[in-house]
Amino acid sequence: MNSQEIECLVRLFSRLPGFGPRSARRVVLYLLRDPQARLFPLLQALEQAGSSVSICSVCGTLDTVDPCHICTDRERDQGLICVVETVGDLWALERAGVHRGVYQVLGGTLSPLAGRGPEDLNVTSLLHRVETGNVREIILALGTTVEGTATMHWLTETLACYTGVIVSRVARGMPIGGALDMLDDGTLAAALSARHPI
Amino acid sequence: MNSQEIECLVRLFSRLPGFGPRSARRVVLYLLRDPQARLFPLLQALEQAGSSVSICSVCGTLDTVDPCHICTDRERDQGLICVVETVGDLWALERAGVHRGVYQVLGGTLSPLAGRGPEDLNVTSLLHRVETGNVREIILALGTTVEGTATMHWLTETLACYTGVIVSRVARGMPIGGALDMLDDGTLAAALSARHPI
Questions:
Q1: Do A71 and A149 belong together in one domain?
Q2: Which of A13, A30, B86, B180 is most buried, judging by how many CB atoms fall within 10 Å of its CB?
Q3: Number of domains making up chain B
Q4: How far apart are the CA of B71 and the nearest CA of chain A, in angstroms?
Q5: Largest distance between two CA atoms of chain B
Q6: Is there a contact between A6 and A28 (Cβ–Cβ < 8 Å)?
């Protein structure tokens, strides 16, 4: 009974991650109730981002320039590469402002079950950088899932042939601000086994 | 560190109902990972809906034509008007396919606390239809909140002067498929007091 245009919009919104038909209808109604203030600014932002954003050929992140702002930033340590799974992970590290080097976005993890092998990971440009550039250290900041761990092992082996490059991984342990009895067994075991004298 | 275009898109998405910064980033990443298949179709749908959808001058719903499809549908009972709070309520009734008359969308409820009085409700066109048309019955299908109930009382009084028009309200009671011990006190009381012989 709705118009086709509204139905189409609801259908597209309900495909977005975290959306269902109900929340999609809610958002569409919200946008259409005040198109000038709500729908058109979003439309414009989508248009601009869609036409200008592309994947950085060096590190694999999303940016309006290629190579991206991070890869061309001379104030950043180009010899220190942090390997992450997704662009979202890169954004999280950038928000925290804790990494002053550059990045490599793999675009996923190895997963034999899902049929994702090494050829599906964005590693060619990483190896290229290691071969040609002055890479000093590679930090593996992958998820502590089975697949993230498998990817970490594979990357460590692949990078082992490049002598002179340190391969490290981020520490595992208790999250800051966390109470001990709220942690899962895996985290507790990791925190305990990685203990160090104070 | 992200480009301005991405930041702007994330900010606009995080203002949508049900969104926060985290879910907005997730959606933006999802869209930008495959613009051809994800971002551009959404862009196009927003463009079409934004340029074509307007408010029906008769009932107040959203549609691409004015008067809307429902108001001009000769197969629907134009003498039976169902009064709802929002366009979302109208959509819910249409999905259920249980109302074969037409609608009046108030656009909200009376709320002295929020400063919303009768002048903020879309009732002029309802009264106009009652005065000029062959309206037989008006069904009040408002929320069973304090504000919905207050609006219902006010509307009943306002419509009382039009003799010959039946003003009814949707029944209150147990929802279908509901277990008795899962219901709140208010619903139980309403269901019990509205009992009828079988």
A1: yes
A2: A13
A3: 2
A4: 11
A5: 69
A6: yes
The one-digit pLDDT tens for each residue of chain A (198 residues) are: 468 899 999 999 999 999 999 999 999 999 999 999 999 999 999 999 999 999 999 999 999 999 999 999 999 999 999 999 999 999 999 988 899 999 999 999 999 888 999 999 999 999 999 998 789 999 999 988 899 999 999 999 999 988 889 999 888 888 888 787 888 888 888 888 888 777
What's the CA angle centered on A141, arms A137 and A143, to 5 degrees? 155
Which tens digits make up the pLDDT trace of A168-177?
Answer: 988 888 888 8
Whether A136 is covered by a domain: the verdict is: yes
Closest partner residue to B9 (CB to CB) among A29, A45, A65 is A45
**The two structure tokens encoding residue B114:** 């929020």
**B70/A43 touch (CB, cutoff 8 Å), yes or no:** no
CA distance A163 to chain B (A): 32
**Is the reported ipTM for this assembly greater than 0.90?**
no
**Mean pLDDT over the full length of chain A:** 91
Question: What pLDDT is stored for residue B69 in this prediction?
Answer: 93
Q: What share of chain B is helix, strand, coil (3-state, %, to 5)?
A: 45, 15, 40
For the stretch B82-126, pLDDT in tens is 999 999 999 999 988 889 999 999 999 999 888 999 999 999 999
For residues B147, B148, B154, B157, the Cα torsion angle rounded to the nearest 10 degrees is -150
A22, B88 contact by CB (below 8 A): no
Domain identity same for B48 and B125: no
Q: Determine, yes or no, domain membership for B57.
A: no
* Closest alpha carbon within chain B to A97: B1
Residue in chain B nearest A55 by alpha carbon: B33
Q: Which of A34, A52, A70 is the last residue of a domain?
A: A52
Nearest by CB: A53 against B6, B41, B88: B6
Q: Which helix (H) or strand (E) holds B146?
A: helix B146-159
- Do A41 and A94 share a structural domain? no
Domain final position from B52, B72, B92: B52
Which of A12, A32, A49 lies nearest to residue B53, judging by beta carbons? Answer: A32
Among the partner-chain residues A13, A23, A49, the one whose CB lies closest to the CB of B5 is A49
Whether residue B91 is found in the same domain as residue B132: yes
* Shortest distance, CA A11 to any CA of chain B (angstroms): 10
**Domain-embedded: residue A117:** yes
| B127 inside domain | yes
Range of the domain at A24: 4-52
What count of CB pairs under 8 Å joins A to B?
Answer: 151
Q: Find the CATH number of the domain harbouring B34.
A: 1.10.8.420
